[in-house]
Amino acid sequence: MNQNIASHPELFSVEGLVGVVFLILIAITLTGGIIACNSNRVVRAVAGLIVCFVGVAGLYFFLNSPFISMMQILIYVGAIAVTIAFAVMLAAPEEKKKFGPTGPLEGPFAFATAALLAGGFSLLALNTDWPVRQKINDGSVEEIGIRLLTEHSMVFELISIVLLIAILGALVIARREE
Amino acid sequence: MAILGLYNNLNTYLIIGALLFAMGIYGIVARRTFIAMLIAAEMILAGAALNFMAFNRFTAPDPTTGQIFTLFIMAIAAAEAAIGLSIVIAIYRQYNSIDAEDVVELKG
Fold first, then answer.
1. CATH number for the domain running over A1-94
2. Do B3 and A60 touch (CB under 8 A)?
């Protein structure tokens, strides 16, 4: 499992076909992301977000964690994207004007910032020699459950309270004034 | 073919995470409606979570830590989306618009 030695699988082998699926997932993720941050209509951006998150869920599958992959689809696609779609319908953003950048320079400046960030992070990732350590368990769902209820139990309870308070707060804020 | 072995390489995932993050930054800076900004913020969180998962798979000694952290990120993202959308709806009631340019009452 040395990540520095790139493997060279044949196209028509199991590894090669897995690599093709991986490339398709990358394409889905990036296409969805571009749609989500560039489309003029908010509903289309939500659809792009869903596509992007399905692609990311596939990438999680490649990272040896089908559990997180399922959670990604359940929470992001099933809950967050649907909530955003609800808000789009409730707030009814009329298409009276374009939702593009405001000034002529805003788009290019934003693009330059994003390109600088992406390039910088990519260079940083490529030029760093990440240390690889011995695994102490296999990262299965069983292990995740044990860790959640022993080492990380405090954070687990806190996150439940945060979610509860967030939902109550959302209801209070969005409630119509009598 | 080297390109087919990309899925077994840490750098691939890091670069995809960086691209997701950059798209989110672009969205937050360039879009003008609140909901589009919220969508971009979700993409930033997804990029961060992908980085956690990549390090979890390739370098971390305990491969459960990154997965648990990603679960927490998802919970925080859900809370953030709920609060943000309720604020958007409240703003829409008040101003009848979700354009960030229209909500400038405090501007001098």
1. 1.20.120.1200
2. no
Residues in chain A with CB shorter than 8 Å from the CB of B49 are 56
For A136-157, what is the mean pLDDT?
89
Query: Does the predicted TM-score (pTM) go above 0.90?
Result: no
Q: Which residues of B touch A176 (CB under 8 A)?
A: 93
Average of per-residue pLDDT across A10-33: 88
- The verdict on residue B107 lying in a domain is no
Quote the number of domains for chain B.
Answer: 1
Domain spans, chain A: 1-94, 139-178
CB contacts, 8 Å: A141 with chain B: none
Of all residues in chain A, the one with the smallest CA distance to B21 is A118
Residue B18: which of A84, A113, A121 has the nearest Cβ?
A: A121
Domain with B46, as residue range(s), is 8-95
From residue B60, give the alpha-carbon distance in Å to each of A4, A131, A134, A169, B56: 16, 9, 8, 37, 5
Find, among B35, B36, B34, the residue nearest to B23 by Cα: B36
Side chain identity at A177, as an amino acid letter?
E
Q: What CATH number is attached to the domain comprising B79?
A: 1.10.287.3510
Question: What is the ipTM score, two decimals?
Answer: 0.89
pLDDT at A95 exceeding the cut of 70: no
State pLDDT tens for residues A48-77. 999 999 999 999 999 988 999 999 999 988
Q: How close, in Å, is residue B106 to chain A by CA atoms?
A: 20
Which tokens belong to A151? 């080492």
Q: Is residue B27 part of a domain?
A: yes
Q: d(Cα B86, Cα A102) in Å, to the nearest integer?
A: 25
